[in-house]
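Here is a tokenized protein:
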Amino acid sequence: MQGNKLYVGNFNYSTTDKQLEKLFSEYGKVVEVSIIGNKGFGFVEMSDSSEAEKAQEALDGSDFEGRTIRVNEARPKRDRPDRNNRRY
């Protein structure tokens, strides 16, 4: 694993930043947790790539609050076209 930012998906919509931080802190220092709206996914940034890899290996496919969560290395953010300049 090259990066230290993880994509986390398929958790309950009611899951909080604090709950994810507690879960991932068992595998190293959590730098930042970002939940995207109430959509059941978000991102967890660990302090280094070895901690992120440990967390991914341990948590991907595991049960968290009754849901099987997915944990993968986050892909770099892509530039998205400006929605105001769409052509139809």
About this structure: DSSP finds two helices and six strands in the chain. The chain has a mean pLDDT of 91.
